[in-house]
Amino acid sequence: MWRTSWSLRYLGKADDENGGGDIGKAVPSIVYNDIQASWTLKRGFSVSLRVDNVFDKKAPYLTSWNDVNTDVFTYDLIGRRLFLQANWQL
């Protein structure tokens, strides 16, 4: 049996109250796309593949946040990443 899913992570636009200048004071909304597919066999074995941030969206630039110039607790800093998982149940 196959299963697939596509999920969206939406973050709305925001203003940086402490930002200086026109660049990095406000950021637009951003959407991250994640997909997953899994395959299950009759004998309790399954394999899953997940891709987070499919389109490799970069975090927006914010001037006043910290040394990385973005909000590390809100935005995806790693970029596209893959996960492979195998399960076997007795």
Any chance you could write out the topology, listing elements then pairs?
Blueprint: E1 2-11, E2 14-15, E3 26-27, E4 30-40, E5 45-52, E6 81-88
Antiparallel strand pairs: 1-4, 2-3, 4-5, 5-6
Poorly predicted runs: none
Count of DSSP-assigned helices: 0
Computed Rg: 18 Å
What's the rounded overall pLDDT mean?
89
Structure class? mainly beta
Number of domains: 1
Major sheet summary line: 4 strands, antiparallel
The general outline is elongated
Number of DSSP E strands: 6
State the order of secondary-structure elements, H for helix, E for strand. Answer: EEEEEE
Q: How is the largest sheet built, in terms of strand order?
A: 1-4-5-6
Can you tell me about this structure?
This protein has 90 residues and is mainly β. It has one domain. It is built from no helices and six strands. The protein has strands spanning 2-11, 14-15, 26-27, 30-40, 45-52, 81-88. It has a four-stranded antiparallel sheet, with no helix packed on it. It has a two-stranded antiparallel sheet with strand order 2-3. The protein is elongated. The model has no long low-confidence stretch (mean pLDDT 89).
